[in-house]
Amino acid sequence: MERSDRMVALRRRLGTLAFLTLFVLLAAAPCLAQRRMVVGQDESTPASAELKAAAVDSVSWALNKTYVFEDVAKEMEKHIRGKLKRGDYDELSTIQDLARQLTEDMREISSDRHLGVQFMSDELVEEMQQSDEDPDVAHQLAIERGRKRNFEFKKIEILDGNVGYLKLNGFNDTSLSGPTAVAAMNFLGYTDALIIDLTENGGGSPSLIQTIMAYLLDDSTHLNSFYIRDGDSLQQFWSAPYVPGPKMVDTELYVLTSGHTFSAAEEFTYNVKNLERGTIVGETTGGGAHPVKGYLFPSLNMGMRVSFGRAVNPVSGTNWEGTGVTPDIEVPADQAFDAAYLDALTKLRERDMSDEEAFTLDWAIAGLEAGLKPVEVDVATLESYAGDYGPRHLRVEGGKLIYQRDEREPFEGTPMTETLFEFEGLAYFRLEVVVGNDGVPVKLIGHYDNGHTDENPRDQ
Fold it and tell me: Are 18 and 291 a contacting pair, CB within 8 Å?
């Protein structure tokens, strides 16, 4: 594994995607054993009684020093020390088992999904220490990692009806992702509606939220604040006062969410909802609103994420911790795109437009409605459609209508109505079966997304 790839794994383990993440090296904590207990450890290395006690000491130290709610930190410490004393950890055989159990025990008290403990290999511990000693190395590794993943900008597309689509799987800091973000938003800048897909977005940096939101708001706007326990301070975050390229202040906005949408992705969603800037579509999000700090316990081969603050939305006065963000249109995540796209096209269809533009929207709307409300046609009816219609042929296989033209590739049909079918791989084409008064098919009509139609009578 290359060094940069190993650092990717390490950053993920310590919670890179937990937004506003800071990493500090816990080199001389008073409760932390200073010697390396076992050299050459892996996840299956046995966890000794000495290591378990030291781990509880170290985790307790970090909680009391940093966790945003001091009283909850004390409750968590009491809980894990009590379990250690009662021997509840005696059956935990490996370091990884111990780390997992400590995470579960802390979350049992706090319900904080940002909190976590993770095993770290000797190699990753060493590299983390080197990275902290040389910030330039850490920054360069972050750039290399981000470039390999295109800074989590996974897909950008202009859909029929001039609807933009952006799939964003993480919020990399703007110092790294800024040029990519600007390019993406400029590409989408003249769309009439925009769908931002955060269904696989686990979080990241609030700075990218500030950049993207600036394209969607007319003026610099107070988006969020963080209360920070250390110093009893409040840090505000506003949308950027300037962005290169066109703004999309009148663009219909949709944000897609799932139960995996977390942390900074939830902040973006929460901002949009509270500012009444767009429509949230999908599932309730994961419920993690706390910024976190990462600790490394080198002698234990463990790392830890600790929440050091809490979000304070300027509109609601609270945040989404433990509750998540509820969607405006609630559908399963795998239906969120279709539901948002349909809602966007339906709203756009109400505008004045040419006949050609209206046909394009109507075509897309019909397809989306059929997908969200599937139609079933019984096999007997499908079999009545089977036959030859000039160069077009229909047959039934496995209860599905199969369409083939001449000797070309066959396509499986999906019913949009009892007599109208669409085909995966032929997005531009739909086939209508015309049935006579006696219920017997008489011809096929091919419908195309440019408005053209053609007909073929059934062979006698």
Answer: yes
CA 230, CA 322: separation in Å to the nearest integer? 22
Separation of alpha carbons 275 and 18, rounded Å:
23
What residue type is assigned to position 350 of the chain?
E
Give 394's contacts (C-beta < 8 A, 6+ positions apart): 385, 386, 387, 401, 402, 403, 433, 444
Q: Positive or negative, the Cα torsion across 276, 280, 284, 286? A: negative
Dihedral angle computed from the Cα positions of residues 377, 378, 380 and 381, in that order, rounded to the nearest 10 degrees: -20
Angle at 136 between CA 132 and CA 141, to 5 degrees: 85
Closest to 32 measured CA to CA, from 307, 306, 304, 308: 304
Local confidence band at 107 (pLDDT 50, 70, 90 cut-offs)? very high
DSSP, collapsed to helix, strand or coil, labels residue 173 as coil
Distance of alpha carbon 143 from alpha carbon 149, whole angstroms: 10
Answer for the pair 210, 223: CB distance below 8 angstroms, yes or no. yes
State CA 283 to chain mean position distance.
11
| Phi, psi angle pair for 175, to nearest 5° | -60, -25
212 close to 272: Cβ distance less than 8 angstroms: no
Question: Distance of CA 316 to CAs 106, 225, 287, 358, Å?
Answer: 28, 11, 16, 40
Summarize pLDDT for 123-156 with one digit per residue, the tens: 888 877 777 767 777 778 888 888 999 999 999 9
pTM here is 0.86
Cα(62)–Cα(57) distance, integer angstroms: 9
Sequence letter at residue 39? V
pLDDT tens digits, residue range 338-363?
999 999 999 999 999 999 999 999 99
Amino acid at position 180, single letter: T
Measured distance CA(68)–CA(284) in Å, rounded: 24
